[in-house]
Design goal:
D-Maltodextrin-Binding Protein, domain 2; 48% helix; alpha/beta; 2 domains; 4-stranded mixed beta sheet; 6-stranded mixed beta sheet
């Protein structure tokens, strides 16, 4: 920060706090309107979780049992989840191994099952993957203990997302608020820009930022899933929740005019080379972690001033010298239509073996105990409504978490995660590839729509 005397510095800090709290208040308001082995609390002095927020969940002894848990998480996200698994080991006597999975996870699990070595539990990042696991008869229904934790700690909407045809198969362990834009406070200050509330204001801010010498947005185009999230926020805000639901089920074709309008709006941002860090080619070569870190390094002249993605961005910000809440701030995804969007996502834990250990782990993952361990590490959002907000390490994450819980069942789930994996969850194919091609050539809206519809029709079988 460039200083101009104590009073100016204090004023700017106060303004940033107000902007942060205002943003979180808007997120909350939008969420409300948008669609030890014996089960006892760990003794003091151990490395167990802080269970002061409530009674510890009872778990069985599993001495000598070995479990494998598969997820697509890497880096800090994986390391923090392993801390949860270590606590499960301590309290049950089991040995748990984390198995790194690849996208699409359905293909990864299929190969494991075909080889006779499925993991005991998998965390699936798409609703479509859960449906596929049930259809393939891989998934086991949750047991009575896990169901009891779900009934106690989760709203009906999150339970329903983990069910298929009325049977509960999954525990939504990790959630995401995917309607957030994170920004470099110093870059905004240097350009004299304020957080925008509308799409038009976002484009104006992008123009001002780029003119000041800092590209506006860091886009992780190398990871196609981030582009689906961009599209979903624009589409939900512009087309509305009814058409969003229809498109998610492929009851509406991707050649519909509403999709054309959303891509046209997105092209206003993606079509400006000077708006993107590295231009279109640079964006296509940028993976998600780098898209975040390059936004929060370089002082008031970073590679870009903003980066879009969910609450989990905090994990990557922590890998930089930027301080969350001071150097790195957040505002809600701007309104493209009448209302700003509220899109959520998440990872659902599913048992792939009919074993006591797999069910015990599902029970633990549905408890407050596991959520508290992960929450205190940062970059994690739990749909567990019994988790106290003070479990989160900072005001920004507490505000985002409170908004999610306050939303209850009124949210729209990530559209691509509801789709068959072949369309919405496969690198280099389907929606991921079509939107990467669109980022490379944002003028080709009709061609993008045609490719999206052809791939969707094939994946949905209609």
């Amino acid at each position: 920060m460039r200083t101009h005397g104590t009073s100016r510095t204090t004023l700017r800090t106060s303004q940033r706090r107000r902007h942060t709290w205002a943003a979180l208040a808007v997120v909350g308001a939008l969420a409300l309107s948008a669609c030890g082995g014996d089960g006892k609390e760990p003794a003091k002095g151990t490395d167990g979780p802080d269970t002061s927020g409530g009674p510890s969940v009872a778990l069985p002894r599993l001495d000598g049992e070995k479990l494998e848990v598969a997820a697509v998480w890497t880096g800090a996200e994986q390391a923090n989840f392993v801390k949860v698994l270590k606590e499960f080991e301590r309290r049950t006597g089991a040995t748990v191994t984390f198995v790194p999975a690849q996208d699409p996870i359905v293909t990864f699990l299929g190969s494991k099952i075909a080889g006779g070595a499925p993991p005991d539990v998998a965390l699936l990042p798409q609703v479509g993957a859960l449906v596929a696991a049930v259809k393939n008869k891989w998934a086991q229904p949750v047991g009575a203990d896990a169901q009891a934790q779900l009934d106690q700690n989760f709203s009906p909407g999150w339970k329903k997302l983990g069910a298929v045809d009325g049977t509960q198969y999954g525990v939504y362990y990790k959630a995401a608020n995917k309607s957030l834009i994170w920004y470099n406070a110093k870059a905004f200050e240097a350009a004299g820009v304020r957080p925008p509330a509308t799409w038009k204001e976002l484009l104006t801010a992008a123009d001002t930022l780029s003119a000041s010498g800092t590209p506006a947005v860091s886009v992780a185009g190398a990871d196609g899933w981030t582009l689906t999230d961009w599209f979903e926020n624009v589409y939900l805000s512009q087309a509305g929740p009814e058409k969003y639901d229809q498109l998610a089920k492929h009851e509406l074709k991707w050649t519909d005019d509403s999709v054309k309008q959303a891509l046209t709006s997105l092209a206003e941002l993606f079509g400006r080379k000077d708006f993107l860090a590295g231009g279109q080619s640079g964006a296509l070569a940028t993976e998600f972690p780098k898209s975040v870190t390059q936004t929060f390094t370089g002082g008031d002249r970073p590679a870009a001033a903003m980066v879009y993605e969910g609450d989990f961005v905090a994990v990557n910000i922590a890998q930089t010298d930027a301080k969350l809440g001071t150097d790195a701030l957040v505002f809600p995804f701007p309104a493209v239509g009448a209302k700003a969007p509220v899109v959520s996502g998440g990872d659902v834990a599913v048992a792939l073996k009919a074993s006591k250990g797999a069910q015990a782990l599902l029970t633990f993952l549905a408890s407050v105990d596991s959520a508290r361990i992960h929450a205190r590490e940062g970059g994690f959002l739990s749909p567990n409504k019994a988790l106290a907000p003070d479990a989160y390490p900072n005001d920004i994450q507490r505000g985002i978490a409170e908004a999610l819980i306050a939303a209850g069942d009124n949210f729209r789930f990530d559209m691509s995660d509801q789709a068959p994996a072949a369309f919405g969850g496969t690198p280099g194919a389907g929606e991921w590839k079509a939107l990467q091609d669109f980022l490379a050539n944002p003028a080709d809206i009709a061609g993008t729509q045609a490719r999206l519809e052809a791939d969707a029709a094939k994946a949905y079988g209609n």
